[in-house]
């Protein structure tokens, strides 16, 4: 059942919020011990909230856009009275004392936050294998990684443990696991959604966004969390469209992509595995059948993207972790974190030295400006750019990879973060049962256009 249909059914009392949360709790109890998508679940509070929502519906009172829907939240986003540990031993006992802006908005719209999801430690990873609390399994491809760093949020939705979830995306951490788990994941334009209450990985890249099984769920969550936040300096004061209305209009159309020009970047295909390219080329054919014009583009800066992203990431992550000194929050991070987090701290510390910052960090900032300029130039001539989300299939859990092999998962996703543009991943097919995602990127604040393409493609797949 689509999220929009379930939402209407709850509001019409065809199914109750209580039945919905009980179904989720049953699935969590049955499957979470093997999948490890949730690190913490609060059953009693969720049931109590569902009963209150049902009572209000029964009495004819107005309820919110998320009324009775079950939500999972990544463990680096503050939710009052839940453990906000960022999947690290460093913060394993830290209890959230306030709600992040996105969480406040979810609660105001009667979403039921059932628990906190697993992730790579401090969001430093692409596989959810670096979590202090153990790896997360991929429900769509058992034995393989779910992707990261928001692997728990993607896996929870893929396994039907919750209707929607939210994660954070610094260099692909929503889109990567969405692709691997066969669900939809959306990274908004930088500043379109408040980051207040998010534990920073790299503040000039980080964005919060949703996961869902379908476009109506992504639209519903974006309608709730998008918009200006006066308490957060990076948010944009923009006219937020109705994402739900846009999806509804798209789904009514017989030729939803008619008149749209979509770009395919040849270098994005050249760096991807042939089996993934075959799926993407099949997706392009379907889009042509729906009325889209497909044009080939070239992006010569692709080799610049990963080193630029990681140099900036290291420096900003080092800066963000200085508050974890063991005085106010948990344990001292250098004494309690895992190998990948420590690597990034050491690299950030090294690059931040006065005599080296000009050689590395400042040049990386210049490279980012070039990448942003070139991406915006490409997007000027098309409605969106489409292509693979991730260039290779998820590896088997426990496979030993060198850091650069792990970072290679991010080569196609870091571009949107470097450019500050919106991007999403939607299911495109599978290779031997392993999901493959189609990435869609658009101009800044053209978030709704991406969602329209996702909804159109979803219709074509039904």
Describe what you observe in this structure.
By secondary structure, the chain is an alpha/beta fold. It has one domain (3-258, 371-461): Amidase signature (AS) enzymes, CATH 3.90.1300. The chain is built from 18 helices and 11 strands. Strands 1-3-2-4-6-5-10-11-9-7-8 form an 11-stranded mixed beta sheet, sandwiched between helices. Strand 10 (423-431) and strand 11 (434-441) form a beta hairpin. The model has no long low-confidence stretch (mean pLDDT 97).
Distance between the termini: 13 Å
Strand arrangement, largest sheet? 1-3-2-4-6-5-10-11-9-7-8
**Biggest pleated-sheet summary:** 11 strands, mixed
Q: Give the CATH H-level superfamily.
A: Amidase signature (AS) domain
**Arithmetic mean of pLDDT:** 97
Low-pLDDT runs: none
EC number: 6.3.5.7
GO molecular function: ATP binding; glutaminyl-tRNA synthase (glutamine-hydrolyzing) activity; transferase activity
Keywords: ATP-binding, Ligase, Nucleotide-binding, Protein biosynthesis
Active site: 74, 149, 173
